[in-house]
Write a structure and sequence with these properties.
The chain is an alpha/beta fold. The protein is built from 15 helices and eleven strands. The longest helix has 17 residues, at 81-97.
Length: 336
């Protein structure tokens, strides 16, 4: 039986992470295959020299942009139900034809349906440390996740209490999944957490940073009805990507000076306003910081309280999620 890695190529991070997992499986002697519906970062497979099966229907750039927009807006659906149904049907067929013993998902949400329909366990890596135990221990607040003028008028404490009472934020995307699940006679998803979690969720963090022991992470069990009872979690540690392109020369020169601590920040799946706040904070610190972005407009405004030297120690790298621009290393600019 093979382990099927199915990255969502709308996301560079997920594409690179699935390639890293695939390479590790092959190196360990495990039978593994890569399959994808494509997207802006589909070209990375060829650059990395790894075989990948393209599944129908292919994801267009417009569909990829919709997917990305839905990450930030709970009122948008990730996919059109007709396209989602086709994805699920073709994934089920591929899993059965390839003899899948497990499916590893890179935010390919259709896999939440196709894996359970094919009767194989689902492993996910796309959650990072955004997992239920973190919410349950008060290390994350739902109110921090939304920059929305409508929600901003609701007191943060009320918003957290309301979502806690509901068990999940009301994402339209989960309703679309259940529309297709009903059509195909597949067990429905129970909520957002059930969509995001797999039978096994690999937490790409470490106990020293997250503050939750390895024993506690492995001992966690679902206590709410909106999460599948089979869900389990384990630490996997960071999964680093070795990506295309060279580090820009101005970045090398900027980081070469040994006089200050160096900070690297990559908050790709977040809103531009949050990136701007991070840049402002870093600009007030006496460090040399590199902020990597993907879908965000830049450069971002610097802070008013610049260091005495007059130069804000901050580099912002930007790239668009289109094949023509994604094929080249991101352009960079030093914010002065």
């Amino acid at each position: 039986m093979a382990i099927v890695c199915i990255p969502n190529c709308a996301f560079l991070s997920e594409t690179s992470r699935q390639i890293a997992i695939y390479k590790a499986l092959v190196a360990s002697g495990m039978p593994a295959v890569l399959a994808t519906h494509g997207g802006p970062y589909d070209f990375v497979f060829e650059q990395e020299g790894v075989p990948c099966t393209r599944l129908d229907p292919p994801m267009t750039n417009a569909e990829a942009e919709r997917y990305l927009a839905a990450v930030f807006n709970p009122l948008l659906r990730f996919q059109d139900p007709v396209a989602l149904r086709e994805h699920v049907v073709n994934e089920i067929r591929f899993f059965r034809e390839s003899g899948a013993g497990a499916v590893v998902s890179g935010f390919t949400l259709s896999a939440a349906l196709s894996a359970r329909a094919a009767g194989v366990p689902l492993v996910v890596t796309h959650t990072g440390s955004f997992v239920p135990i973190v919410v349950e221990r008060g290390l994350f607040r739902w109110s921090d996740a939304f920059d929305n003028l409508l929600l901003d008028i609701v007191p943060r404490g009320w918003l957290d209490a309301m979502i806690g009472w509901m068990g999940d934020p009301p994402y339209v995307g989960s309703r679309v999944l259940n529309t297709v699940a009903k059509q195909l006679d597949i067990a429905p998803v129970l909520g957002v957490a059930d969509v995001l979690l797999g039978d096994l969720t690999l937490v790409t963090d470490v106990p020293e940073i997250l503050g939750i022991s390895e024993e506690d992470m492995e001992a966690w069990r679902p206590s709410r009805r909106n999460i599948r009872p089979t869900a389990r979690m384990n630490y996997a540690g960071p999964i680093y990507a070795e990506l295309f392109g060279e580090v820009p020369e101005d970045v090398r020169e900027f980081l070469a000076a040994p006089d200050k601590p160096r900070v690297y920040v990559a908050l790709a799946s977040t809103e531009a306003s949050r990136i701007a706040r991070v840049c402002s904070t870093l600009a007030s610190m006496d460090v040399r910081a590199v902020v990597a972005t993907t879908i965000h407009e830049g450069p971002f405004a610097d802070a008013a309280n610049k260091p005495a030297s007059g130069q804000v120690p901050l580099i912002v790298s930007t790239s668009k999620t289109t094949p023509s621009l994604a094929e080249t290393p991101p352009a960079s600019s030093i914010v002065q």
